Please model this.
Amino acid sequence: MKATGIVRRIDELGRVVIPKEIRRTMKIREGEPLEIFVDRNGEVILKKYSPIGELSEFAQEYADSLAEVTNYVACVLDKDAVVAVAGAPRKEYLEKPLSAAARKVMETGETTIINEPGAHAFCEGCKAETEDCKFSSTVLAPITLSDGQVVGLVVLSSKDPDTKMGELEVKLANTAAGFLAKQMES
Model:
């Protein structure tokens, strides 16, 4: 665990203020849910809550199926990072932060096609110098709960320069996103 040099006291209601520097670094916004754990050593651990994280095993199986059927790279993202990858090396993408394009889709809640060769369409932080992280075409479909809250994305990507994502890929990604949303709400 990393020491911050910041000490906070618990108030009479049992509350602790998380310092602004830590909230900014961890991208924790007001009203955002946190999970609270206690480890074997008695340390209290706060972790950003991800509803998709609860379904990570299921999301991985769904991504595996999509990748197998389509021969595309299939990913599931939560609000902050890639949580499931299939059709590509997991270590290249798993837990990588969202790209600007992915964050924009999360904000707008609209399915988007990016037909831009060499684009880093859904995540940042992978080896940008290699071709492993560059795609010629990508579909990003928001996972939207019934209350309208976007909690993640389903992504289909291709490295084949002759592939252009179209209506079929949009329908596949939207179906996967809708299915995952329903699983989270049940």
Observations:
- The chain has a mean pLDDT of 85.
- The beta strands are 34-38, 44-48, 73-77, 82-86, 112-114, 137-144, 150-158.
- The chain has two domains: 1-49, 52-185.
- The domain at 1-49 is CATH 2.10.260.10 (Pemi-like Protein 1; Chain: D).
